[in-house]
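can u pls check wat happens w/ flavin-adenine dinucleotide
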Amino acid sequence: MEKSAQHYDLLIIGGGMVGASLACALANQPLRVGVVEAVPFRSDAQPSYDDRSIALAYGSRKIFEGIGLWQQVKEIATPIKKIHISDRGHFGATRMDAAHEGYPALGYVVENRDLGQLFAKQLSSFSNIELICPAQLKHFTINANDAEVVIERNGKIETLTTQLIIGADGGRSAVRQLSGISHSTDDYLQNAVIANISPGKDHQNVAYERFTDSGPLALLPMSDGRCSLVWTVDRDKVDEVMAWNDETFLARLQARFGMRLGLLQKIGKRKAYPLALVRADEHIRPRLALIGNAAHVLHPIAGQGFNLGIRDVAALAQVIVEAKDNDIGLLSVLNQYDQWRKRDQRCVTGLTDGLVRIFSNQITPLVMGRNSGLLAVDIIPPVKRALMRQTMGLAGKLPKLARGIPLR
Ligand SMILES: Cc1cc2nc3c(=O)[nH]c(=O)nc-3n(C[C@H](O)[C@H](O)[C@H](O)COP(=O)(O)OP(=O)(O)OC[C@H]3O[C@@H](n4cnc5c(N)ncnc54)[C@H](O)[C@@H]3O)c2cc1C
């Protein structure tokens, strides 16, 4: 049957970090891919490519290698050579060292805005990918042989058709909502306050994770000697923390973090994000799959959200490409993606949620338990290695892209 100009093999709703990664993973495949994104990539209001920085796990580097994007990502990335995890005022601490474990780095820190620019350039360079932006999903209908997707572009309503709708539209996914897929939300009653900090001492590519009585805080190494701060604070304190002037903020942060990086001297713009664990109850339906935050939103305590999302991308892209001449919207095809991803999603969600609950608690036996845990991880190599493989995204049955192998 003749396909219309408005027909796509797949339509990715959401060109944020995960949706854009999927489009790049499918570049140069014999598939027509549309990416419907509501907010232009360079806009200040872009919710995915905003003022944050994210820590990419080593496994995500391998996926970017497989996609053919690592050389470009590398240019905007700062390697994490060591990780230091500690519990303020207690004995437990764990150290991880890339060189000891035989990796060039444990992970990499990238500014989201830089990633946005990179994806914008990439998406416009492949003939099989069309960026439809700014345009917003309005609704869709699933039929036996295709799906009709209604979008609003430049104030006009348009109908597109596709074999497969990908919901990559973030934690408040319209795709999830319009398909009637239910989800659970566990509000942590915490906010993450982020800012860039200039420390007095060279960060030496060390990432610090420090658990304090007022919430966990992470300082990640960035370019130009800066560090990216993610500080978790209780929701009822966040207005006060955001209202502190820069001197007060730095002094309070210094008191909790200590002097490992010398005097914390300068701070950039601050922003606060409410934190919750959001889980979609189903990830596939006929002609529909959810990926990234549309499927699962995590607490940033362990820096796993995007890393989990890009592993969804690696598995789904492989399943789609291997479906060859099959209809890629069939449940029998999408089921392979769903089954493949279950274990990793369950492990990472459980690990992240467990960390939040254990380290947000000051009950004495728990504090002692977590300190013994930190110490055990530090001194028992197999425990440390197993934890590292999981958090680096190297555990379980890895898709081709996650082994750095191009799809075709
Ligand atoms: C403070 C903080 C720190 C973090 N640090 C890390 C870290 O170190 N490492 C890590 O791996 N993860 C981290 N994360 C998590 C990471 O940011 C997310 O997992 C990631 O952004 C998810 O990407 P996504 O593309 O699935 O969703 P989003 O980033 O939410 O993107 C969704 C996109 O869909 C678009 N969209 C929404 N609705 C529509 C619609 N109706 N029509 C068209 N387009 C639409 C939006 O405009 C947006 O561009 C952190 C998160 C926070 C809050």
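Residues 7-77+110-185+277-360+397-403 form a domain with the FAD/NAD(P)-binding domain fold (CATH 3.50.50.60).
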